[in-house]
TrEMBL record:
Name this protein carries in UniProt: Peptidoglycan DD-metalloendopeptidase family protein
Start and end residues of each stretch annotated as Disordered: 199-232, 253-332
Top-level lineage group: Bacteria
Keyword S-adenosyl-L-methionine listed: no
Organism: Herbaspirillum lusitanum
Compositional bias annotation for Low complexity: 207-218
Keywords, ordered alphabetically: Coiled coil, Signal
Record flagged with keyword Cell inner membrane: no
InterPro entries to which the protein is assigned, alphabetical: Cell_wall_metabolism_enzyme, Dup_hybrid_motif, M23ase_b-sheet_dom
Domain M23ase beta-sheet core: 362-455
Secretion signal, residue range per the UniProt entry: 1-21
Length: 462
């Protein structure tokens, strides 16, 4: 009785002990690692912007005064959206952990009650140990039955205690995970508060600047030379991005070829090793007809498919936007003609080829939409630019492969970063009037091999 009682007391103490979880979270570390991975790409894009801007002659562009504030607003909005998604995921994980904790606690309570019952039954039965039973001189058949019974009871107790210990350990681990999730939520709440303060400050700053610059912005918007420079600036950016994408493709192709050659060499070495083993076995075999089949060489490197997926009067209105989906991602973009939807709901105030005073014809669409309206990717692809550009404000460009790109300008905020993979219907930005635009909405272009074409010839009216 005493040994069992001590064991039960020890188990109960372990269960009752309070485990103090350490405030350890990997969230900050993971964020730092993610930012480090983006650093090289961001540096290349920054160099690209400097290369484009160094040819600019207009140093007093009124929209430039808004750049810093509009970039800060975009960054704060993106951070708030990311934090909101992260908070939702963390809360869901916390709810699952709490549910698991309740289940584990109920199991432990049931197992403790079962173990107590076993010990109590054994005590009530007389708690005869094996030595006393063997020396009792009782009927051998009864002794054998009692020994077997005691063995079964001992095995059941051992299994129950092992399971109880495992569950107690699981509870400790669960509590640590719960505490970690709570610390993460506290971090997120703190960051959200800070980002909201930044957002309000930058919005106030931008509003003040707009009031001061309104007359100058209005006059500069009508300058034909400025419009021409804006078009050239965007075209230069698209051409440079296409070069970077092509260089990246070549680098990836070279890396794949290197891996393929390494796999071939490894397979060859493996085949030669097997042949050598077979020769050695054949030489050691005294039967002249003995031998073995040469193992067939496995295909070490399957071919890798490198194909990429693929205030004015209203001129119409768009009420259909891309729906979140995966089926378009991975398909050649050229095959989606006639199936796309415009990226934001709103009135069309400028169409492709429409006149812009004495300046060049419009190379895209302008869709009037309320500030903050969701802008969605028209098809799957990869974000290759997400930054502020003179003339277009907060701009995001998505590469769809095979030299097709879609361009989304004048956003209040870009919600994706360069390098992000997006699917059709993903929210990538929010509409606005950044870059000194008079109206709130979205400027949208589609380009192939650097040349703009009419988006309305690619969208469905259904």
């Amino acid at each position: 009785m005493s040994a069992h009682a001590l064991l039960l007391a020890a188990v109960m103490c372990v269960c009752a002990a309070s485990v103090q979880a350490q405030p350890v979270t990997e969230r900050s570390k993971q964020k730092q690692e993610a930012e480090k991975e983006r650093a090289d790409l961001q540096q290349r894009l920054a160099d690209l912007k400097r290369d484009i801007n160094k040819t600019e002659t207009a140093k007093d562009n009124a929209a430039d005064a808004l750049a810093e504030s509009e970039q800060a607003i975009s960054k704060a909005n993106r951070s708030l959206r990311d934090l909101s998604q992260e908070q939702s995921q963390t809360e869901s994980r916390l709810a699952q952990l709490m549910k698991q904790l309740d289940q584990l606690t109920a199991q432990v309570n049931a197992q403790q009650a079962q173990l107590s019952k076993l010990l109590r039954d054994q005590y009530v039965a007389g708690n005869e140990d094996r030595i006393k039973l063997l020396l009792s001189g009782d009927n051998p058949n009864r002794i054998n039955r009692e020994l077997q019974y005691m063995g079964y009871v001992s095995q059941a107790q051992a299994r129950l205690i092992d399971t109880l210990r495992a569950n107690l350990q699981a509870i400790r681990a669960n509590k640590a995970d719960v505490q970690n999730a709570k610390f993460e939520l506290e971090e997120i709440a703190q960051e959200e508060t800070e980002q909201k303060q930044v957002l309000e400050k930058e919005k106030s700053k931008r509003s003040s600047l707009l009031s001061q610059l309104s007359t100058k912005l209005s006059s500069q918007r009508k300058e034909a030379g400025k419009l021409q420079q804006d078009d050239q600036r965007l075209s230069g950016l698209v051409d440079k991005l296409a070069q970077i994408i092509e260089q990246q493709k070549k680098a990836e192709a070279a890396a794949r070829e290197k891996r393929r050659q390494e796999q071939l060499a490894k397979a060859k070495a493996e085949r030669e090793r097997r042949l050598a083993e077979q020769r050695a076995k054949a030489a050691a075999n005294s039967h002249p007809n003995a031998g073995g089949k040469t193992p067939s060489m496995p295909n070490p490197a399957d071919a890798i498919d490198d194909d990429e997926p693929p205030k004015t009067a209203s001129l119409g209105r768009n009420d259909q936007i891309p729906e979140a989906q995966e089926e378009n991602f991975g398909k050649p973009f050229a095959g989606l003609r006639g199936q796309l939807r415009l990226p934001v709901r709103g009135d069309l105030s400028a169409k492709f080829g429409s006149s812009r005073g004495d300046g060049p014809a419009s190379k895209g669409l302008f869709i009037r939409a309320p500030e903050g309206a969701e802008v969605r990717a028209v098809a799957g692809g990869r974000v290759v630019f997400a930054d502020w550009l003179r003339g277009f404000g907060n701009l995001i460009i998505v590469d769809h492969g095979n030299q097709y790109m879609t361009i989304y300008g004048n956003n209040q905020a870009v919600l994706k970063r360069a390098g992000d993979v997006v699917k059709a219907g993903d929210v990538i930005a929010s509409a606005g009037n950044s870059g000194g635009n008079e109206q709130s909405g979205l400027y949208f272009e589609m380009r192939h091999q650097g040349r703009a074409f009419d988006p309305l010839t690619w969208v469905t009216t259904r």
